[in-house]
Amino acid sequence: MHTKPxxxxxxxxxxxxNGNGHDRPHxxxxxxxxxxxxxxxxxxxxxxxxxxKRADHEGEPLAKVMASHGxxxxxxxxxxxxxxxxxxxxxxxxxxxLVRSMSDELNVDPQRIVLMGFSAGGHxxxxxxxQPDLHHDxxxxxxxxxxxxxxxxxxxxxxxxxxxxxxRGSAQQLVGRDASHEVLQQFSGELHVDANTPPTFLFHTAxxxxxxxxxxxxxxxACREHDIPVEVHIYAHGPHGVGMALDHPALRSWTSLxxxxxxxxxxxx
Length: 269
Prior knowledge:
single chain, alpha/beta
């Protein structure tokens, strides 16, 4: 068992998804800070950044918190612009499958996989969670063996819809400026909630300007319509992109609320 963070590349060395080798798609694994005889949950985190970058403060800090509470923290470094769909989706789905495929090595329970995303990373996580078979990458040799659907979903100020109160920048980066209404519907997560959607935790601020709170509210409403357990925390005020909100005392409680929500999912969280 590795005790320090380790990097695992998502795709084989000769895969064209690796591009020229710069910023090759990968995941960084943060083992639990204390050993456990029984398999632990894993929390896979997709940082935000409008599909143009990945925000560092929405990755490693959260992974370390999860590791400190007895879970495996994983940061998914998925492809962003100039890559468009299906690149970010394929990387996130591959990460879920890889963690499940490595469950024995990582001492992870493959049926306790949490997928977490911030902002546009939340859109990526939401799309995988609600449509785990939207795209099967021809280079993903794990497709027939492991599901990409997580067992729980965590969305922090997420981009959810490309139709209702959308974050147009994320939509343009992922599917282009001239995407059809049908394509925009395909990538509006609230329209794809069904009985198989995992229990979900949502955090947002009511006055978030770049990504309106309706993204979380409408996803929560869709969960309720399909009897999916959902917990929603809407704070009255706060900017977009706060991460753990350590510099925002009125918001920082959200991570404690998340850990409380995960408690029944984690033997020793």
